[in-house]
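Query form — protein U-box domain-containing protein

QUESTION: What is the three-dimensional structure of this chain?
INPUT:
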Amino acid sequence: MRGRFIEPLDNTGLQIPYHFRCPISLELMRDPVTVCTGQTYDRSSIESWVATGNTTCPVTRVPLTDFTLIPNHTLRRLIQEWCVANRSFGVERIPTPKQPADPGVVRSLLNQASSNSNHLNSRLSALKRLRGLARDSDKNRALISSIASVAEVFVPIVFCNGGGSISDELIHEALAVLAMFPLSEAQCVFVASDSDRVGYLVSLLSHSSIDVRVNAAALIEMVVAGTRSPELRSQFSNADGIFEGIIGILNFPLAYPRALKVGVKALFALCLVKQHRHRAVAAGAVDALVDRLADFEKCDAERALATVELLCRITSGCHAFASHALTVPLLVKIILKISDRATEYAAGALLSLCSAYEHAQREAVAAGVLTQLLLLVQSDCTDRAKRKAQMLLKLLRDSWPGDSIANSDDFACTTDVVPF
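ANSWER: The C-alpha cells for U-box domain-containing protein are given below.
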C-alpha cells in the first residue's frame, strides 16, 4: 500500500496514508492493534466489531481463532511522527494510549489487597495499583467488577471489620477505590444501617486531606442515593457535622473540579430528606450554592439548582436565599441558558421566592425576568417549566412598570395558568 492515500482530512486538503486509517472506521488510528490474522485495526473499532457478535476478521473474513489484541507500537509511533510532521495543517499528535488492564494482574491484585495475611505494604501497593487502573478507564473498572465484588473486597477494609493489620493509609486507599464503583442496594443498606459506619464516614469529611474528604462524600452520596428506606436516609442526613463537612468541600478554595461535583451531588441527596433541610441552611448551604453556581458544569449546575429549589420550599431556606443579594439576579440570568432542567429549577425557585417576598418580586423585575419568562413560555422547554413560568408571570403582573410589555397581548396570553 506504499504511497496509497484516501480522502483528505477534514477540509485541510491533507491526505492521510491509507495504512494509517482503520479498515473498519476509515479514520486515523489512535490505538492500532493487530489480530491473529495479521491485520491491524483501531482498538475501539475491532472491539465494537467483536462485541456485536462478529467472529471473523473484517478484511480477510478468516475466522478469528484468538481474540487477543496485540498493540502495534511501531505503527502507532509512525502515526504519531506523521501527526507531528503535519502539525502546521492543524493535525494534533495522538496521545500514547494506556493499555487495558490484564485480567490476570487484576485478579492477583484483588487477592493481594483483600488478604489479611499479607504484609501491610503489600496490600497498600496492590490497592494503589488497583486505584490507578480503575481511574484509567471505564473498561478497566468493568473488568475489575467482573472479577470480584468490589464492595465485598473493600467495605471490610474501609470499616475495619476484616481483622488483621490495618492502617489509616490502607483504609483511605480502599475508600478511594470503593468510591469509584456503584454499590447494590443491599450494600448501601449495610453501610447506612450501622450508626458507627455512618459516624466514621462523616468523621472523614473533616480529614486534613481533601482527597479523603471527597472520597468519603462520594461514598455517602452513593449510599444515601442507593437506599430506599426513609429512615436510613434520615439517619445519614441527621448525623452531626455531615452538612458542615459537605459544604466545606463545596467551599474548598483551590481549583478542584471533583470537589464541586461530588459536593453538590452529596448535598442534593441529603436535601431530599425534607425534615433535615433546615440543617443544610444552618450549615451555610445557601451561600455555598449561590457563590459557586457559576463554577458548576452543566450536570452539576442542574443539581445545584434542584437543591436551591428544594431549600426554597422551607421557610428558613427561602428567607436565606431571599436575603442573598445575588440569588434573584442569578436565577433570572440562568433561565434558558443551561438546560431545560436548569430552567425548570430556576423558575421554581423564583416562584417560591417571589411568592414569599415582595422585594424578591422587585429584584426579579429589575433583573429582566419578564423577557426571560415570555421567551420561556414560547420555547420548547418542559411543561413543568412553562407552568411555573405562567404562575410567576401571573404573580408578578402588578409589579411591571406601566409602560412595560405587561399590558401587551403577549403577556395576556401567558396568564391562563395550568395547575400542577
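ADDITIONAL NOTE: The two ends are 67 Å apart (CA to CA).
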